[in-house]
């Protein structure tokens, strides 16, 4: 047998013998440890005994031992008692009990109460609800924490003299509560002004894994995104994470019977206003024609170029002015055709009833360029489509930065009553953009496409826009790009040859020598037949 096998077997035998020996001698070790403890105790007591008492102590100890010796079986009983006492004293010590866990409610609610006290304490209040030596139990009536120890629900009272009707005072309290409860979540604040109560609820995060797809909606219904279950009365099936789930949508109804025919989307830079426009374009293409204006000139909508149903995608000021002039004349022509058919009692022509969508991304940048060059403002050319677009089946969608709201014309702000705000906008910005106070405080770090929507006079609701990336963006995930390409009207131009040259206007606008565009009609119509209206499948 090799040497290493002998060594291995010897180690195993030694380990087994050691385990058996430790098991066999464990009682003796316990008794020995107990005897050692008894000896230490006796030594300590002897050293602590004064000199004048040591003699009597020795005499009593000797008398006790003699008495035990003279008793029948005394030595045996004494030995058994000593062994039992040694075994009990020498047993392994118990682990120290863990300190009790701190009360989460006591810590967090006390901190929140102390933070609210400077804002809700009146110096002349004889019986203040909030004071620096008070307890949170006097002001907070109910609270609830989630499994992670975070505040999920809270109801508190506040003094009657607090100015709860002023947005600035409300925002100050909301900011304090969010700072103490956690800025990573959104909170809904329900102010009960009649009973001076404030109810706070942490909002569950919205689903962010819903990609662009065909949504179950009637023609003229556009799914802006998805919201909470209590934000709408319906749900639709969507493909989410490889499975089909029911999600509550935020539906915007367009067309001649819509009370909010136009949409204004404002957002913080980088939070998906261009993605929202792409989502709307993909939903409208099956039954409408598009005119797309890319005012930023970043190529976010280049995937729509030369697609069936897309009249034009313009990025320059000259092309934008020409396209919007044509849209204004087309709106006038549609109105005349619809009125003539209505007076004659005949069916209106198909080219007057097929919806036309004008999608404008960052038009304020083109407005500044037009003012610098002394040309007409593109926003002024939208007045006719905005005011008469509902009757003419013309829908206008404008997306821009929230900081550019003041640069929008009064006509645009007055006629776009369907509003969307994307990104963590402040209370004042959200109120100005939506036209109503926002009772939800946004999180400090919101995902792309997260925001709020308000249709007409309804209450603002949370919104998560479907992930609709630019399919020409190489940095976007391939699955998201393929989802968008599958919704475009023709084949994937990345792997297959593009179709033939699309029809262009027979007489494109020309630029005279002086640089001003010539005032002549621009034909943006297509020589191919109009796409037949069909419902979204």
Commentary on this structure:
By secondary structure, the chain is α/β, with parallel strands linked by helices. The chain has helices spanning 3-24, 26-48, 51-70, 74-89, 104-120, 167-181, 273-284, 317-344, 350-353, 363-373, 383-392, 410-415, 427-434, 478-485; strands spanning 140-145, 151-157, 187-192, 197-202, 221-226, 236-240, 243-247, 249-253, 263-267, 289-294, 310-314, 356-361, 394-401, 418-422, 440-441, 450-455, 461-464. The chain has an eight-stranded mixed sheet with strand order 11-10-12-13-9-14-16-17, with helices on both faces. Strands 1-2-4-3-15 form a five-stranded antiparallel sheet, with helices on one face. Strand 16 (450-455) and strand 17 form a beta hairpin. Helix 2 (26-48) crosses helix 4 and helix 8 runs parallel beside helix 11 (383-392). The chain starts with a helix and ends in a 52-residue tail after the last helix. Mean pLDDT is 84; it is low at 491-537.
DSSP helix fraction:
25-40%
Total helices: the number is 14
Distance between the termini: 79 Å
Averaged pLDDT, please? 84
- Biggest sheet character: 8 strands, mixed
Q: Oligomeric status of the shown chains?
A: single chain
What overall geometry do the principal axes of the alpha carbons give?
elongated
* % residues in beta strands: 15-25%
Radius of gyration: 40 Å
Please give the order of strands in the largest beta sheet.
11-10-12-13-9-14-16-17
Summing up helix and strand content along with how strands pair, one would put the structural category as alpha/beta
Number of strands: 17
> Are there runs of 5+ residues with pLDDT below 50, and where?
491-537
